[in-house]
């Protein structure tokens, strides 16, 4: 078999979760909450299934959910996307990313990604016949270097992919970044894919600079979000893409032959939940901020050094005072020998910075889980 994805193995998230199970480690690796979804969502899902909403949903998503997403986008970002032409419900942000890339990237096109970047970006680009052009973020602050990004643009650049709040670092685009981005893309035909799955998990009074707030950006953008992050249900795999009509039309051509539609009962449940409990996503930042603060406080009792976390639900730690192993070896050792699973950063890079000694810990966990992890980390 001549593989189409020679560089791809099993994802680091699967590898580390498997290792955590084998060794009975506390799993702070793969990003998923270990607490349950809101009760109302379970009731709404149960009701939808009992009412027989179990057949194919409309290809673009049920109208009630697209309406709810549109109204919520207006509330959050002051922009009301057309629910019929501009919103598509898909099976997780991963599907949105795959569909968008497949829809616009032609063989030979270049796609700029900012390293470290989420691991599904490059395989999607490769399968479309494109070439990922990796531009590093600052190795400490994970801020974009606009000079480097500008220098990476060529006549072949078709798409730029951004992610704020950022996985794995939690870094967030500032208003200045948005201004740089706008100037960079002005007068080009480059599309933008903005991965905003952690849009509601932002801390310390920061504002999430959604691309949807900015008319000049959103007219060339696929903006991707995920109910998995917002409603603690990563296993449901429901997300959506907001894009101008012309781009949504192209994305839907892929979506309709990729999955056709997304789990129908969950769509009914989210439609109800968004309208009935806007407080859920409005308070999500505060909910996770309390977890972040408590976890960071506890980390100060270990030899791991926590980096700042502006948003998202991951804590990067510098482990250089504990070990000189590279990050993959360190995370394996931490899981197998010390009983705490973590994610190395190197799989998020084309070429990881030499000597980087950082690991990612997920704090979307119950206090008992985090306490158990800290107890083990104190022994490092
Ligand atoms: N993008 C980023 C940055 C993510 O962290 C994730 C989930 N870990 C995804 C996309 C995929 O989201 P989903 O599970 O909804 O496919
Ligand atoms: N997005 C999750 C993370 O970053 C993992 C998703 C997955 O396992 N596919 O940990």
From TrEMBL:
Q: Where is the Aminotransferase class I/classII large domain?
A: 26-377
Give the EC number(s) under which this enzyme is classified: 2.6.1.-
Native organism: Lysobacter niastensis
**Looking at the record's lineage, which domain of life comes first?**
Bacteria
Q: Does the keyword Transferase apply?
A: yes
The record's annotation in Pfam families points to: Aminotran_1_2
> Among its keywords, does the record have Transferase?
yes
Do you know which SUPFAM superfamilies this protein is assigned to?
A: PLP-dependent transferases
Q: Which cofactor does it need?
A: pyridoxal 5'-phosphate
Q: What are the protein's UniProt keywords? A: Aminotransferase, Pyridoxal phosphate, Transferase
**Name of the protein:** Methionine aminotransferase
State any single GO MF term. transaminase activity
UniProt-listed NCBIfam families: PRK09082.1
Give the matching InterPro entries.
Answer: Aminotransferase_I/II_large, Kynurenine-oxoglutarate_AT, PyrdxlP-dep_Trfase, PyrdxlP-dep_Trfase_major, PyrdxlP-dep_Trfase_small
Taxonomic lineage of the native organism: Bacteria, Pseudomonadati, Pseudomonadota, Gammaproteobacteria, Lysobacterales
């Amino acid at each position: 078999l001549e593989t189409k994805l020679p560089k791809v193995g099993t994802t680091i998230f699967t590898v580390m979760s498997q290792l955590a199970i084998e060794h009975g480690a506390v799993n702070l690796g793969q990003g998923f909450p270990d607490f349950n979804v809101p009760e109302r969502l379970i009731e709404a899902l149960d009701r939808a299934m009992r009412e027989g909403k179990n057949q194919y949903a409309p290809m673009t998503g049920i109208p009630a959910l697209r309406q709810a997403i549109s109204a919520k986008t207006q509330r959050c970002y002051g922009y009301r996307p057309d629910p019929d032409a501009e919103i598509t419900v898909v099976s997780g942000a991963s599907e949105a990313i795959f569909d968008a890339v497949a829809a616009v990237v032609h063989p030979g096109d270049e796609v700029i990604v900012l390293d470290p970047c989420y691991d599904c970006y490059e395989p999607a680009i490769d399968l479309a016949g494109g070439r990922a052009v990796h531009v590093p973020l600052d190795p400490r602050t994970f801020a974009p270097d606009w000079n480097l990004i500008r220098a990476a643009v060529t006549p072949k650049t078709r798409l730029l992919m951004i992610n704020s709040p950022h996985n794995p670092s939690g870094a967030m685009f500032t208003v200045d970044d948005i201004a740089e981005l706008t100037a960079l893309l002005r007068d080009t035909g480059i599309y933008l894919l903005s991965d905003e799955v952690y849009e509601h998990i932002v801390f310390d009074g920061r504002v999430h600079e959604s691309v949807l707030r900015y008319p000049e950006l959103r007219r060339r953008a696929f903006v991707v979000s995920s109910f998995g992050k917002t409603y603690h249900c990563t296993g449901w795999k429901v997300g959506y893409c907001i894009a101008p009509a012309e781009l949504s039309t192209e994305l839907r051509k892929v979506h309709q032959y990729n999955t056709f539609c997304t789990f129908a009962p969950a769509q009914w449940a989210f439609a109800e939940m968004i309208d009935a409990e806007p407080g859920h996503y409005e308070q999500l930042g505060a909910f996770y901020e309390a977890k972040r603060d408590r976890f960071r406080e506890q980390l100060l009792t270990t030899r791991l050094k926590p980096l700042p976390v502006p948003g998202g639900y991951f804590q990067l730690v510098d482990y250089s005072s504990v070990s000189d192993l590279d990050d993959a070896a360190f995370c394996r050792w931490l899981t197998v020998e010390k009983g705490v699973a973590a994610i190395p950063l190197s799989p998020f890079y084309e070429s990881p910075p030499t000597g980087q000694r950082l690991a990612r810990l997920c704090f979307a966990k119950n206090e008992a889980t985090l306490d158990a992890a800290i107890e083990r980390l104190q022994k490092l």
